[in-house]
Write a structure and sequence with these properties.
Helix content: 25-40%
Largest sheet: 9 strands, mixed
CATH class: Alpha Beta
CATH architecture: 3-Layer(aba) Sandwich
Number of strands: 13
Number of domains: 1
Number of helices: 11
Length: about 375
């Protein structure tokens, strides 16, 4: 096929709704980056403890929770910071949050301070059952990672969902399902292990190059998590009103930013002690305080860059949602409560039942005529 014919085939796929990206769970982010697309390289960068792992876990949770049989998704997660059991516990926490309106932290789940209650244990049993149901869609590697391991594990992972065929002396990957989505995650780049005499920067640079090759070879998308430079929020920059991070703030390497199709940088205004941020009230009892994170799209190869998505973030369970514009907020204290901001299925069902019962009672009221 010629390039024009390939383009036209993509246009036809789009008309059939086949180019819609998988949702991140954050509506405004989906609108800017077109959801998570096949064969894309996404970088998520943030300072320490701002929420980069929480963001990629939230995105992954939404995809695994809403698996479309027509577009099955499979994750290969290189967890270099957290052991696999902790990663699964965080997914269970998100499940309990959405299903039951129960906000269980890692401390709660593992009973670090007090034994978990029987009721919450039942919720975790439901979450465990869900994890078991989607286990074939999630592969976690929590051992040391270098470029050779990255490449070998990725090929091994892809072989579960397709075959490698010889064509004109070259190996070509043929997916079992042309609509499947393979997604790799490296959490995070600075924890890779240098090998074969390379420095860490060289290892990360080579990993970025490998990820580009793998995304093209396997039609595989990637999320690379990276740390921002320590001086990204220095006093001099604050004086110059340059608190927000830029592409230059990705620590250790510029190769990751160069290789990426989309770069998302998290920013935490409360940590920077900003009274206001982009029209939002941050500090004080009437501010968003720790509940705010902005997602800055520093690079967007297939769309508009330099977009800022303001989100509400519950750090206890790692839940994100789009915030309304500042002019639509009259009471910031309503964002200080998880139950008012996180959708809960059981709460919706209860509310629906209560509303239905209320209507029935209303309909059964006797009609009394007064003379």
């Amino acid at each position: 096929m010629t390039d024009l014919e390939l383009l036209w085939a993509q246009i036809e796929r789009g008309r059939n709704g086949e180019n819609i990206g998988l949702s991140t769970g954050i509506s405004k982010l989906d609108k800017v980056i077109g959801g998570v697309q096949p064969s894309r390289f996404y970088t998520i960068a943030a300072a320490s403890s701002v929420g980069k792992s929480a963001l990629v876990l939230f995105i992954m949770y939404n995809m695994l929770k809403n698996i479309d049989k027509k577009y099955p998704v499979y994750f290969l997660y290189f967890s270099l910071e957290l052991p696999a059991n902790v990663l699964l516990a965080k997914l269970m926490s998100l499940y309990c949050t959405e299903e039951f309106g129960v906000y269980l932290t890692l401390d709660d789940i593992l009973s670090f301070q007090n034994p978990i209650s029987d009721e919450n244990l039942d919720h975790l049993k439901s979450a465990k059952k869900w994890i078991e149901e989607i286990s074939s869609h999630l592969t976690i590697v929590d051992s040391r990672l270098n470029c050779s391991t990255l490449y070998a594990e990725s090929l091994k992972f892809a072989a579960k969902f397709g075959v490698f065929e010889e064509e004109n002396g070259k190996k070509r990957y043929v997916a079992n399902d042309p609509n499947q989505r393979l997604i790799g995650v490296i959490d995070h780049g600075l924890l890779m292990t240098p090998s074969e005499g390379r420095e860490l920067k060289q290892e990360i640079d080579m990993a970025a190059s490998y990820m580009v090759t793998l995304k093209n070879k396997l039609n595989m998308s990637w999320f690379m998590l990276m740390q921002q430079n320590r001086d990204a929020s220095s006093m001099d920059r604050r004086k110059a009103e340059l608190s927000e991070p830029t592409l230059n703030d990705i620590k250790q390497t510029g190769a990751v930013g160069d290789a990426s199709d989309v770069v998302i940088q998290l920013f935490y205004p409360f940590r920077e002690k900003l009274a206001t941020y982009r029209g939002y009230r941050i500090l004080g009892d009437q501010g968003l305080n720790r509940w705010h994170r902005s997602l800055i799209i520093s690079k967007n190869r297939y769309g508009i860059a330099d977009q800022v998505i303001n989100t509400w973030f519950a750090g206890s369970v790692g839940w994100f949602k789009s915030l309304p514009s500042p002019d639509q907020i009259t009471d910031y204290t309503r964002f200080h409560n998880e139950s008012e901001n996180i959708p809960c299925k059981i709460r919706k069902e209860t509310l629906k039942e209560d509303t239905s019962t209320s209507k029935q009672v209303e309909e059964k009221q006797p009609i009394i005529f007064s003379f």
